[in-house]
Write a structure and sequence with these properties.
The complex is a heterodimer.
Chain A: H1 11-27, H2 32-53, H3 59-77, H4 81-89, H5 98-103, H6 105-120, H7 127-138, H8 143-149, H9 154-170, H10 180-202, H11 210-228, H12 235-249, H13 274-287, H14 295-308, H15 317-330, H16 334-348, H17 350-358, H18 362-367, H19 371-382, H20 386-399, H21 403-419
Chain B: E1 3-11, H1 21-37, E2 42-48, E3 54-57, E4 61-64, E5 72-81, H2 85-93, H3 96-99, E6 103-108
Classes of the chains: A mainly alpha, B alpha+beta.
């Protein structure tokens, strides 16, 4: 008897998305909910059957067959028995090839999952609903896992999901709407959605919430899936994947065991993951093909400069400052301008840094506080003006968004007070 | 050796969301582990029961739905062999249903047959 403990990690979660995608292709997007229900039921059935009769040699095929039969039963009850076969037959290949298609499952499903994901990222759906829908259908997260990962309530997640599904119905969206051109056009939106999923996880402090780290890994899985696809595996998609890998490689260095942020200068670089950095470099190589220089190319190049430096003092700040300048010229978001100012200050000194930070107006500052205040405080510390530094740390403290942030800022204030 | 029926009782009015695929995989692992741990004692892993049913009442009246007296419903069963109730309870304690917080009723076979 095979043992289910031999199933790869996250097997059910990942298969969920693949199976829902495959059934949705056959049944039409209008039956997305039915596809989800029958995959859920097939998995429930596996729970009872597999421990008794052994895990089937091809668990995916077992789940697919079971889910498909459940779907046919359900449609038959709705007196729509022909719908499945009609829908399935109307596709290019005919039903008689069914056994063959099962064999091809591995090579074929990848594409269907991606189509389902691109569908979730349709511009008529609000981005937070896109995230919820993608996590539910493509990534196989439960609604309580999504709520916990996004730090919101069950009711909110349910609302976002029902709104997303409403839009799918209202606009009668189908897989077949995704022409090659449409796929390429939607790529930026798709990458933004993945980035949002990643950042939700990345913002978590270590150990606080395992499900949030799962979001990071899920975002990377989705990014790799996009990058591997012949249509959308553009240099930009490769740069994006490299960037996520470079972020996650350093994740365990940036938070200490108490969940507090560790400043870049003080991070133990031995805790950065060399394997992931190497994997990122393979993606970066593919990203370098072609002439495109996307935002993600620049961000990945900056992340790579940090990874490349043996320690903080070896950082090539002039290269980093130049990359930030290129980024700032293209996308002058307040956060990028803040980072650009900090990088520049390590080349031209903290006085220049302060000047650049002060160029951000009140509206911009508001969007990036308390980071703006923390950076100002550090500039004044380097200028040996502890009073001004302390006053900015105090402002930052009042604006801290989380307990770890507040503790971090207070430690900086205590340290400064001791120095005085 | 006496046999015992383990009756799995699920809460009926549970507001719990459906288990996620990740949780289901964990659950599958628990069942496998339970089966291995008590291989000689589990006579029949039993089966799950679907939530719908019929109730045949005295006088031949047939009603829809399972007979829900308490706020729980029988969701499945297994059969174990054990020397005593204590031993049967010990097996039940490690059963995944108990591990995830479900209730299990344990009844000894009368042995009439």
């Amino acid at each position: 008897m095979n043992s289910s403990s031999e199933l790869v990690e996250h097997f059910f979660r990942h298969e969920y998305g693949r199976l829902v995608a495959l059934l949705t292709r056959d049944l039409g997007v209008r039956n997305l909910e039915l596809a989800e229900d029958v995959v859920q039921s097939a998995m429930s059935r596996a729970l009872v059957t597999w421990p008794r009769s052994g895990t089937p040699s091809d668990p995916t095929a077992w789940l697919f067959r079971t889910a498909k039969n459940l779907a046919i039963d359900s449609l038959r009850r709705q007196k729509l028995a022909d719908e499945y076969s009609e829908a399935a037959c109307s596709r290019s290949d005919d039903c008689s090839r069914e056994p063959l298609r099962l064999l091809e499952l591995d090579s074929e499903i990848g594409d269907e999952t991606l189509r389902l994901f691109f569908l979730c990222c349709h511009p008529v759906i609000a981005i937070e609903s896109q995230v919820a829908l993608a996590l539910k259908t493509v990534s196989g997260f439960g609604i309580h896992e999504i709520a916990s990962g996004l730090q919101t309530s069950l009711a909110t997640v349910e609302k976002r999901l029902s709104r997303a599904k409403e839009k799918l119905r209202e606009h009668q969206l189908e897989f077949s709407d995704l022409s090659p051109t449409a796929i390429v056009e939607r790529l930026p939106a798709v990458l933004s959605t993945i980035y949002l999923i990643f950042n939700e996880g990345y913002a978590a402090s270590s150990g606080e919430n395992a499900i949030r780290l799962d979001l990071c890994w899920e975002a990377i899985r989705l990014a790799k899936m996009v990058a591997a696809h012949p249509l959308c595996g553009s240099p930009e998609a490769h740069a994006f994947t490299a960037l996520l890998l470079l972020h996650v490689a350093r994740m365990y260095g940036r938070i200490d065991t108490n969940g507090l942020v560790v400043l870049l200068a003080e991070q133990d670089r031995a805790r950065w993951d060399g394997g992931l950095i190497r994997e990122a470099m393979a993606y970066a190589e593919r990203a370098a093909q072609g002439t495109e220089l996307s935002r993600f190319h620049l961000e990945a190049a900056i992340a790579w400069e940090h990874c490349r430096a043996v320690d903080f003092s070896q950082t090539d700040w002039s290269r980093i400052a130049n990359l930030y300048e290129m980024l700032r010229q293209r996308f002058a978001t307040p956060m990028i301008r803040l980072n650009a100012a900090v990088a520049r200050s390590y080349v031209d000194g903290p006085l220049v840094g302060t000047k650049l930070l002060l160029e951000l107006d009140d509206v911009d500052r508001k969007r990036i506080r308390p980071w703006w205040d923390c950076c100002m405080a550090q500039m004044y510390e380097r200028l040996e003006q502890p009073e001004k530094a302390l006053s900015h740390w105090t402002d930052a403290s009042a604006l801290a968004a989380s307990e770890p942030q507040r503790i971090f800022i207070h430690r900086q204030m205590e340290r400064l007070n001791r120095l005085k | 050796m006496p046999k015992y029926l383990l009756i799995y009782r699920d809460a009926v009015d549970s507001q719990q969301p459906q288990p996620s695929p990740e949780e289901m995989q964990e659950f599958l692992k628990l069942w496998d582990g339970w089966f291995k741990q008590f291989e000689g004692k589990i006579v029949d892993m039993g089966d799950g029961l679907l939530p719908t049913g019929r109730v045949l009442q005295p006088g031949g009246v047939v009603a829809d739905g399972p007979y829900v007296e308490a706020k729980e419903m029988i969701g499945g069963f297994s059969v174990v062999s054990a020397a005593s109730y204590d031993e049967a309870v010990e097996v039940a304690k490690h059963c995944p249903i108990a591990v995830i917080g479900g209730a299990i009723e344990i009844r000894e076979f009368a042995g009439y047959v």
